[in-house]
Amino acid sequence: DTGVSQDPRHKITKRGQNVTFRCDPISEHNRLYWYRQTLGQGPEFLTYFQNEAQLEKSRLLSDRFSAERPKGSFSTLEIQRTEQGDSAMYLCASSSPGQGDPYIETQYFGPGTRLLVL
Amino acid sequence: LAKTTQPISMDSYEGQEVNITCSHNNIATNDYITWYQQFPSQGPRFIIQGYKTKVTNEVASLFIPADRKSSTLSLPRVSLSDTAVYYCLVGDRGGYNKLIFGAGTRLAVHP
């Protein structure tokens, strides 16, 4: 399977615990995005990486959240001291502007990690 | 980025053609349109995208009029498995895109 993969697919944790999610983008994609989706809503942008550089962070990404993309390959999203309000689906997407028309970007999403904070 | 407006929900029956129209009145010259499909507990799945006129692939067609202030996703002969949420988004050519999703259109296909 050459699509975007995410691990784990499901995570249940207790309030106050730390959790880490992993995203493996499509191999030739240099752009990587994290989104969060709560029930009944569309995904919301969290952060963007171009290669290993984190170029934008949403104000939704509080100081309890940190994301990394070492070596410009896979990415991790860590949530420290989880709160019940962090319960959501965390989605990763990757893209490369060079595919097809070089001026149009297509983001491909992974299956998501569903987090439940008790 | 231009805001999009689309119907909250639609109903159809198997075998029918479904057209979902999205309004993006403030679309900029460099913007293009992308549609995603999402099933419960899955990530959004790319369907189609375009800049102007008509685009067709193996699953859908995208019609964009000359003024580009709206676009229509056409799904031919839908089946029960097409029941999903469909999102219309506008992106900026040349730049990276933090996609801004609305609530989408919930399509229900009935037997």
Please provide a written account of the structure.
The complex is a heterodimer of chains A (118) and B (111). Chain A is mainly β and 118 residues long. Chain A has strands spanning 5-7, 10-13, 19-24, 31-37, 44-50, 53-57, 65-68, 75-79, 88-95, 108-109, 113-117. In chain A, β5 (44-50) and β6 (53-57) form a beta hairpin. Chain A is globular. Chain A starts with a strand and ends with a strand. Chain B contains no helices and 9 strands. In chain B, a hairpin with a 6-residue loop joins β3 and β4 (45-50). The chains are: A mainly beta (118), B mainly beta (111). The A-B interface holds A 4, 31, 33, 35, 40-45, 48, 50, 55-56, 58, 89, 91, 93, 95, 97, 101, 103-112, 114 and B 32, 34, 36, 41-46, 49, 51, 87, 91, 93-94, 96-104.
Largest interface summary: A-B, 32 and 24 residues
Radius of gyration of chain A: 14 Å
Counted by DSSP, the helix tally of chain B is 0
If you average the pLDDT of chain A, what whole number results? 92
The biggest beta sheet of chain A is recorded as: 7 strands, mixed
Helix and strand composition category of chain A? mainly beta
The dominant shape of chain B is globular
SS elements, strand count of chain A: 11
Q: Radius of gyration of chain B, Cα only, in angstroms?
A: 13 Å
Helical content band of chain B: under 10%
Share of residues in strands of chain A: over 45%
Query: Would you tell me the overall average pLDDT of chain B?
Result: 92
Using the alpha-carbon principal axes, give the shape of chain A: globular
Structural class of the helix and strand makeup of chain B? Answer: mainly beta
Number of helical elements of chain A: 0
- N-to-C SSE string of chain A, H for helix and E for strand: EEEEEEEEEEE
Low-confidence spans of chain B: none
